[in-house]
Structures are given as structure tokens and as C-alpha cells.
Amino acid sequence: HKPKVYVTRRIPESALRLLTSRYLVTQWDSDEPVPGAELMKNVPGIDALFCLLTDQITFEVLKAAGSSLKVLATMSVGYDHIDLEACKTLGIPIGYTPDVLTDATAELTVTLLLATSRRIVEGVTAAREGTWSTWKPMWMCGRTLLNSTVGIVGLGRIGFGVAKRLLPFGPTAILYSGHTPKDSAAEVGAIFVTFDELLQQSDFVIATCPMNSETVGLFNKAAFMKMKKTAIFINTSRGGVVNQDDLYEALKSGEIAGAGLDVTVPEPLPTDNKLFTLSNCVIVPHIGSATIDTRTNMAEITARNIIAVLEGETMPCPLKF
Ligand code: GLV
Ligand code: GLV
């Protein structure tokens, strides 16, 4: 029989074609996430599941799929939406999409950093709304990367890509923290420090770590208190690494100078969220990997991860867990 694949969203055509040309594909044909109940209804008897980071892949979902399920492939580098223990228990391999989104996500991180430090959103708003009265020596002044200390929490592929891109802006030092020192750090002159040292010394604190039991809520009141009052915090990891109430208080009280967020809890962040009332908080809608090329590549790799397993070959991008 032809293997059955369930795809939880509308995806780039070329990736869908890779699957439809080989398998029986059922798809949640929408740009909105598949409802949990609909997912549960569609997974029984499938051979492969193509999912996104907006799908909660719980033990129940995997159980509902049953013993026919041979591979779970997520169109994301993050995998905090997947119950890894359940996959391990049930012996289901996972495919994901590292590498292809590193450049786009590092680029967006730098974009968000500059937009926040140079107050781009405030400036655009002022220009449009007519509060731009004249050139003023002390108006709309931001902060520069030149001679700054940059701190990167999680010098993985993306963190390294950010460091590489920030070097030409002339920081004095690039610090990083994480589990263990990385060999690649020398290439960008990044110095391994403790999390506390990084918070205390950095002018820019950038979160590019994965979210897991060690990083959830890592950026809390205690962390913001340790940062400089002039510090700018950037998060392109997961919203869950931040305690958002604590971030709000830190931004409101001047405990830190600004924040740029690509990720929040929840997503979308309701428009009446208090973070939106702050002019020193720049929020964009989880667009780190959002370039046409990158999203096409991510979808195709996800399809190829599925094809590899169903054809008895090695996945191009297996998650080691
Ligand atoms: C985006 O956040 C991803 O995990 O791919
Ligand atoms: C995420 O993919 C990272 O490597 O930081």
C-alpha cells in the first residue's frame, strides 16, 4: 500500500509535491493551525506526520497515530512543541530543519537588535504621526554597537551567525554563555562566561538558546536586575525563556533600556497585552526564518526527512535526542 502522510498546514507547493508524488497525502489545507481535535481525528493509521511548531505533539497525538507511525518531521529548528520522551518511548524518529534557517534567523536577530537600539519603530511612528517637529540634538537618540559588549546566550548555529554579523559593527567584546564552551567561538573571538557575568557586563543581551527545562523562565526579575540599566534585550529563541511580567516591569521601571522580541507567550500576543504599551519594546510576529527561500527549504527538508524514513534511508536532518 501507499504510505499515508498527514500534513498539518498549507505548505510551499514544491514540498507538498515531493510528498503527493509518492504517498497518500491528507492535509489541513489552511494557513491557520489545525485544531487539536482535527489533528487527533486525522492521525490514526498514518505512516508519517508533517507538523509545525504551532502543533502540540503530545503523547496522546502519537498514541492516536498508533504503531503505523514511522516518522515525525517538524518544519522548524525548535522542537519544544514535541514530547521527546513519548517519541523515545514509542520509538519514533524525529526530523527537523537546522542549518537552512540559520542565516535568515541570524539576520532577523540583527535586524531586531538594530530596530530596537536605534528606535526605528518609534521613529517611523513619529514621522508618520507628525511629532517630528525638527532635527533635535537630543531627540530619538539610541545606542550603538560600536565599543559595546555583546552577550549571546546560546552560541549555537544561530548565535554564532549573529556574532559573525555583529563583528563588523565594532563591539569591544562578544561574550557567550551556555552549557559548555564551543570550539567555534574562537572564530568570532567570543568569550565563554557565566550567565551572571554575561548579564552584568553586556550592553546587548541576545537569547538564541533552545527552550528546555533549563532555559524556561531564565530571563526573570533576578536576571533583568543583574543587567545594566542601559542594556537592550533581544529574544529570537522562544517566548517561554522570558518571564513576560518581569520583562514588562524591567522595561517600565527602567531596569533595562529596551527589548526586541520575535517570540512571545502566547503567539499571537493579544493586542491588549501591556508590552504593547511600551515604546521601548519592539515586537515582531515570530518571523526569524521568514524569507521565501528559507521557508521553501524548510518545507522541502521536512518532506525529505519523511521520504528518507519511508524509503528506509537516513534522514538528511535527524534530531538526536
Ligand atoms: C522557528 O522558531 C523554528 O523553530 O524553526
Ligand atoms: C539553534 O538552532 C541554534 O543553533 O542556536
Characterization of this structure:
Helices cover 33% and strands 14% of the residues. With 321 residues, it is α/β, with parallel strands linked by helices. It folds into 2 domains: 4-100 and 292-310, NAD(P)-binding Rossmann-like Domain (Rossmann fold, 3-Layer(aba) Sandwich), CATH 3.40.50; 102-283, Rossmann fold (3-Layer(aba) Sandwich), CATH 3.40.50. The strands form 2 sheets. It has a 7-stranded parallel β-sheet, with helices on both faces. A 5-stranded parallel β-sheet has the order 2-1-3-4-5, covered by helices on one side. α1 packs parallel to α11 (292-310) and α2 (36-42) packs parallel to α3. It starts with a strand and ends in an 11-residue tail after the last helix. The model has no long low-confidence stretch (mean pLDDT 98). Bound molecules: glyoxylic acid (2 copies). Residues 77, 98, 154, 156-159, 208 line the site of one glyoxylic acid (GLV). This is Glyoxylate reductase/hydroxypyruvate reductase.
